[in-house]
Amino acid sequence: MELPKDPMMLFSFINMKLRDFYPSLDALCQDMQVNKEEIVNKLKAVGFEYNPEQNKFW
Predict the structure, then answer these.
(1) Domain boundaries, the chain
(2) Are the C-beta atoms of residues 23 and 32 closer than 8 Å to each other?
(3) Which of 14, 21, 36, 40 registers the highest number of CB atoms within 10 A of its CB?
(4) How many other CB atoms are found less than 10 A from the CB of residue 19?
(5) In terms of DSSP bridges, do strands 56-57 and 50-51 run parallel, antiparallel, or are they unpaired?
(6) How far apart are CA 18 and CA 34, in angstroms?
(7) Where are the alpha helices (H) located in the chain, listed in sequence order?
């Protein structure tokens, strides 16, 4: 699956998937076959960090 290119759309998309379908970012990345580091870096570049305890970017 292709992820949204726009960082704000990516932020919203990933958090929705984490909230509704996945217990962790690792599980999401494995199931969707996407690169975790790429997601983390793209969202970090616009000020978001993943919080594993909350299972969301903020």
Answers:
(1) 7-50
(2) no
(3) 14
(4) 11
(5) antiparallel
(6) 14
(7) 7-20, 25-32, 36-44
pTM above 0.85, yes or no: yes
Four-residue CA torsion sign, 9, 14, 16, 21:
positive
User: Residue 48 belongs to what H/E stretch?
Assistant: none
Q: Are 39 and 29 in contact (CB under 8 A)?
A: yes
pLDDT digits (tens, 9 = 90+) for 2-58: 999 999 999 999 999 999 999 999 999 999 999 999 999 999 999 999 999 999 999
Backbone torsion region of residue 47, taken as left when φ is above 0, otherwise alpha when ψ lies between -120 and 50, otherwise beta: left
Q: Tokens 């998309």 — which residue?
A: 13
